[in-house]
Amino acid sequence: xxxxxxxxxxxxxxxxxxxxxxxxxxxxxxxxxxxxxxxxxxxxxxxxxxxxxxxxxxxxxxxxxxxxxxxxxxxxxxxxxxxxxxxxxxxxxxxxxxxxxxxxxxxxxxxxxxxxxxxxxxxxxxxxxxxxxxxxxxxxxxxxxxxxxxxxxxxxxxxxxxxxxxxxxxxxxxxxxxxxxxxxxxxxxxxxxxxxxxxxxxxxxxxxxxxxxxxxxxxxxxxxxxxxxxxxxxxxxxxxxxxxxxxxxxxxxxxxxxxxxxxxxxxxxxxxxxxxxxxxxxxxxxxxxxxxxxxxxxxxxxxxxxxxxxxxxxxxxxxxxxxxxxxxxxxxxxxxxxxxxxxxxxxxxxxxxxxxxxxxxxxxxxxxxxxxxxxxxxxxxxxxxxxxxxxxxxxxxxxxxxxxxxxxxxxxxxxxxxxxxxxxxxxxxxxxxxx
Length: 435
Ligand code: CTP
Ligand code: MG
Known about the structure:
Layout: E1 3-9, E2 27-28, E3 31-32, H1 33-43, E4 49-54, H2 59-66, E5 74-79, H3 84-94, E6 99-106, H4 114-128, E7 140-146, E8 153-154, E9 160-162, E10 170-179, H5 180-193, H6 201-205, E11 211-215, H7 226-241, E12 244-246, E13 260-262, E14 281-292, E15 297-299, E16 302-304, E17 309-310, H8 318-330, H9 336-339, H10 352-365, E18 369-378, H11 388-399, E19 406-411, H12 417-420, E20 424-434
Parallel strand pairs: 1-4, 1-6, 4-5, 7-11, 18-19
Antiparallel strand pairs: 2-3, 6-10, 7-10, 8-9, 12-13, 14-17, 14-20, 15-16, 18-20
Helix pairs in contact: 3-5, 8-10, 10-11
Bound molecules: cytidine-5'-triphosphate and magnesium ion.
């Protein structure tokens, strides 16, 4: 069989989702929505490699989001275009000639199963490759499901013009699998003719090449609006309750031998399964360190010049310590003292940002990801306002969330208490995690 390359499209804006970030990066279960499709492509034996297409302005963020997961088949994250079609063309072009077949998939369909992906690719390989002649049936195979409702053609004044016979009407999904040369030609000719289609198959159809449908699954729907996200969450929970769960992603590799495991517990739930876990969990953290004029000051992962530092075994960054406890607490994973014992020489003068990265890994290994944090720092001195932006950036980068999801406020205590007497700094944090 020819080599098979995937193109996973995540370069949209997710406008209908109404979220502040691209919907592909929103949490779904224990991982970003985009990662669900990525896991499926990693797990499908028929797929050799794949490209992820991301919004040009979110390339760094997307790469940082994927970096901890040790993805084996990811060739590159490439920038998309203004339309889905432009993004798909960019992704397909980024796959080298060695890939005879290309499977284009919307990241917005997170519930694609490994079986369906393998099925449609094998069908395309059997039908069209390796000796593809244009016009040969099965040169292109797209996943689709029969329409269940009656469809109306409605004009701009809201009047029904036609009711097409339902038999024979199908809803196109992805993956859509094509012989690579054919797909690239379809994109090129569409661009030349100024034709835009809402899927890849329509570009191939206009070349006169027969496109075959491969029966998909109604679960493989496109997550478009907030209620779709809730439906997807419910389906994931149902799958987990049946004992069919994806293993937890870990920073060093995915799943051991299998992506999917079947559990046969008496209660029907897999160990650590998604089912009984609330989709949103909250944790709280608090920390205090007293000043030590012999040390540099680190707060929120930023070195602040001209101020006495804080006493402690690590760099004594009270803000990050409170934050780590909040993250661990939200996941029910004890506290920093438990994971980083104070006497341990490994943590002597350690940068707390590195410890925060470890906390993220500990959470990921247990199947949780941080979605948002908020910090309150009480310090009579120094003035922290000039450093807040840098703190948001650094914490966001380490936790894999946008700086806008990192809240940081600073206050004095008007001369009252140990903070007011300039004896030390206190910090409180809350974190929300999903899993
Ligand atoms: N897509 C893309 N590049 C674009 C537009 C869309 O890669 N310029 C991707 C989306 O990321 C998504 C898939 O194409 O995975 C299907 O598109 P759609 O569901 O419309 O997603 P969005 O365009 O992100 O959402 P919206 O139309 O609501 O803005
Ligand atoms: Mg769109």
